[in-house]
């Protein structure tokens, strides 16, 4: 981990390139700098999956924040997002990216809706109230399709081919409730909706069938509603 100019970077040794591969969180430029301002309620399958409606922007717990791209899109659309990241290096990159983006006048309102909680997301699910729980577990390596984009390759090098997911889904579904009534203090929180991001043709996470799915060009969002039962 190194600080280069004004940003924190995670460097990976590269044996076939003159310089190391770099992992960085930057909401101000690159893919996020382009996609963020252009994100719209109608053209984002993610927004439809979490139930975003006019005048109703849910509070989302992103249990596997990673580089924060989906959380940033949701915050751009008006949602309050709690980002959970258990890997300390990724959490440090996220914190650095959020701090730098908060200094940009155009992005400051969006970043203000994003709160990072480093550590195990299971602890956050047990103690924090939200409307939606979002999971984006690490995809397995693809065998026949083109190689994953560089950030995903580096994440897989850091975290392994498979990330946690089934246990988070089971925990979230165990607390799902469509009543819309927030429990009193000291009582485990309830969530109205659980959304899982999957490869387009992959089976449901943990073989748990969702209520419905929303498909994008290469990914799918499986939606589990409150009072879920297998």
Keywords:
230 residues, alpha/beta, 3-stranded antiparallel β-sheet
Can you describe this structure?
The protein is of the alpha/beta class and 230 residues long. Helix content is 29%, strand content 21%. The strands form 2 sheets. The chain has a 7-stranded mixed sheet with strand order 6-5-4-7-8-10-9, sandwiched between helices. Strand 4 (59-62), helix 3 and strand 5 form a beta-alpha-beta unit. Helix 1 (30-38) packs parallel to helix 3. The longest helix has 15 residues, at 88-102. It is globular. The relative contact order is 0.15.
Short note summarizing the structure:
The protein has 230 residues and is an alpha/beta fold. The protein has eight helices and ten strands.
Q: Care to count the β-strands?
A: 10
Biggest β-sheet, characterized? 7 strands, mixed
User: Alpha-carbon distance between the termini?
Assistant: 43 Å
Sum up the overall morphology in one term: globular
Percentage of β-strand residues: 15-25%
Rounded to an integer, what's the Rg over CA atoms?
Answer: 17 Å
Task: Find the structural class using helix and strand composition.
Answer: alpha/beta
The portion of residues assigned to helices is: 25-40%
User: What is the typical, i.e. mean, pLDDT?
Assistant: 80
Number of helices: 8
In the sheet with the most strands, the strands line up as 6-5-4-7-8-10-9
Question: What's the order of the H and E elements?
Answer: EEEHHEHEHHEHEHHEEE
């Amino acid at each position: 981990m190194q600080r280069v100019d004004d940003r924190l970077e995670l460097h990976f040794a590269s044996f076939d390139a003159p310089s190391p591969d770099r992992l960085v969180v930057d909401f101000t430029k690159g893919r996020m700098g382009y996609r963020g301002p252009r994100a719209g309620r109608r053209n984002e399958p993610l927004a439809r999956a979490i139930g975003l409606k006019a005048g109703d922007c849910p509070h989302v717990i992103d249990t596997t924040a990673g580089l924060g791209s989906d959380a940033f899109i949701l915050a751009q659309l008006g949602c309050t997002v709690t980002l959970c990241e258990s890997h300390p290096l990724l959490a440090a990159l996220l914190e650095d990216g959020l701090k730098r983006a908060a200094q940009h006048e155009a992005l400051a309102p969006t970043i203000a809706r994003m709160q990072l909680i480093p550590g195990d997301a299971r602890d956050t699910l047990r103690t924090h109230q939200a409307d939606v729980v979002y999971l984006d577990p690490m995809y397995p390596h693809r065998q026949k399709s083109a190689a994953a984009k560089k950030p995903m390759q580096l994440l897989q090098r850091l975290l392994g081919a498979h990330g946690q997911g089934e246990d988070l889904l089971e925990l979230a579904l165990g607390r799902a409730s469509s009543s819309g009534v927030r429990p009193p203090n000291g009582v485990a929180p309830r969530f109205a909706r659980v959304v899982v991001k999957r490869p387009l043709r992959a089976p449901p996470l943990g073989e748990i069938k969702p209520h419905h799915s929303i498909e994008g060009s290469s990914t799918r969002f499986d939606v589990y509603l409150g009072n879920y039962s297998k």
